[in-house]
Amino acid sequence: VLVPARLELSPIMLEFGPNQDSQSLLLENAGGVDLHFDVEILAAYDGVDWLEAVPSKGTIPGGESTSVLLNIVGRAALDPGVYVGGVIVGSAGLDNWHIVVTLLVE
Predict the structure, then answer these.
(1) Closest Cα to residue 53, out of 12, 8, 89?
(2) 68, 20, 8: which is closest to 41 by C-alpha?
(3) Could you write out the three-class secondary structure of 53-83?
(4) Could you give phi then psi for residue 76, rounded to 5 degrees?
(5) Distances from the Cα of 65 to the Cαs of 7, 26, 92, in angstroms?
(6) In the chain, what's the furthest Cα-to-Cα distance?
(7) Rounded to whole angstroms, how far apart are CA atoms 82 and 2?
(8) What letter would DSSP give residue 47?
(9) Rounded-to-integer distance, Cα 30 and Cα 8, Å
(10) What would the mean pLDDT of 51-60 be, rounded to a whole number?
(11) What predicted TM-score, i.e. pTM, was given to this entire model?
């Protein structure tokens, strides 16, 4: 009997300091069948997107994991301050994961 796909993710909160431009999210399929995932970025300020995910979608075989790299982009276009955004990682038929991302610009 195959165990349904189950998405687990860590960490669930990320903070980017003034000199930090990338961090990884670990996505794990704790089930026994393939898990297809999508990453949605909710991080823009005044028309400037400041976060990207690579890859933004993919497939994780049962019992395996993969990393998604979150990169800060557009930092130079942002005024000094603290910016809060989000990342949603989801898969059809499963609950979405919501990750809070904070960026410090000096």
Answers:
(1) 89
(2) 68
(3) EECCEEEECCCCEEEEEEEECCHHHCCCEEE
(4) -65, -25
(5) 9, 7, 17
(6) 54
(7) 45
(8) T
(9) 7
(10) 98
(11) 0.93
